[in-house]
């Protein structure tokens, strides 16, 4: 079994519910510090956030549909970084990927990477909505565009969230050159460990406390 400390440093402690309030974000930050996780992930409207200490701050762009014009995604990323985001989790245009227009997908990603400056960009491919060939090509294009991570899911798509199969395929595609973030529907210790074993180097969790509580140091 993976230790509590080993899992904690992989976690983006996440609050992306539309009904989130400033008070709930403040509570998220407090809990994240108590848990010793790596980062928090919040909606861009919640930035800037004060008193985050050693926590990394991640936010989302083009979320959750990805159906946003590229120049708007880029502008959203630039604003998020100006507001203090260390990391930007962007959603690809999933329809373009399904249609096979991966040149457009790559250009969309590149625009966000360039707008984000030194901030780390994670590319959400919504893996449950894609077939294996589309997952592989989306990951290749994310790497070509200069992203630092590929990420499975928003957690909002009806097709589902992360799967060990998708994580394994994504890791096989990007090797050790990019990170792989598993996110969406990871609610148990067993699921978290399965994603790590499949190759995830980051976990997006809203129920971090429950999962970490099931592990020992």
UniProtKB/TrEMBL annotation:
Pathway: Carbohydrate degradation; 2-deoxy-D-ribose 1-phosphate degradation; D-glyceraldehyde 3-phosphate and acetaldehyde from 2-deoxy-alpha-D-ribose 1-phosphate: step 2/2. Its EC number is 4.1.2.4. GO terms for molecular function: deoxyribose-phosphate aldolase activity. Its main location: cytoplasm. The active site is at 89 (proton donor/acceptor), 151 (schiff-base intermediate with acetaldehyde), 181 (proton donor/acceptor). It catalyses: 2-deoxy-D-ribose 5-phosphate = D-glyceraldehyde 3-phosphate + acetaldehyde. It holds the Pfam family DeoC. It is found in: Cytoplasm. The keyword Repressor does not apply. GO terms for biological process: 2-deoxyribose 1-phosphate catabolic process; carbohydrate catabolic process; deoxyribonucleotide catabolic process. Belongs to the DeoC/FbaB aldolase family. DeoC type 1 subfamily. HAMAP family: DeoC_type1. This is Deoxyribose-phosphate aldolase. It comes from Brevibacterium antiquum. The lineage of its organism: Bacteria, Bacillati, Actinomycetota, Actinomycetes, Micrococcales.
């Amino acid at each position: 079994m993976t230790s509590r400390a080993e899992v904690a440093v992989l976690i983006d402690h996440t609050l992306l519910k539309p009904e989130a309030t400033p008070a709930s974000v403040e509570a998220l930050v407090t809990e994240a510090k108590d848990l010793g996780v790596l980062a928090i992930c919040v909606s861009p409207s919640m930035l800037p956030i004060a008193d985050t200490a050693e926590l990394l701050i991640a936010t989302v762009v083009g979320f959750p549909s990805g159906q946003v014009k590229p120049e708007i995604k880029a502008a959203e990323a630039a604003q998020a970084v100006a507001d203090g985001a260390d990391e930007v989790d962007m959603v690809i245009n999933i329809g373009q990927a399904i249609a096979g227009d991966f040149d457009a997908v790559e250009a969309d990603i590149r625009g966000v990477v360039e707008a984000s400056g030194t901030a780390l960009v994670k590319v959400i491919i919504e893996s449950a909505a894609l077939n294996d060939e589309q997952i592989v090509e989306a990951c290749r294009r994310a790497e070509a565009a200069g992203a630092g991570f590929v990420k499975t899911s928003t957690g909002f798509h009806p097709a589902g969230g992360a799967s060990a199969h998708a994580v394994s395929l994504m890791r096989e595609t990007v090797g050790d050159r990019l990170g792989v973030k598993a996110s969406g529907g990871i609610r148990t210790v067993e699921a978290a460990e399965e994603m790590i074993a499949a190759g995830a180097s980051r976990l997006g969790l809203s129920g971090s406390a429950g999962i970490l509580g099931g592990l020992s140091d």
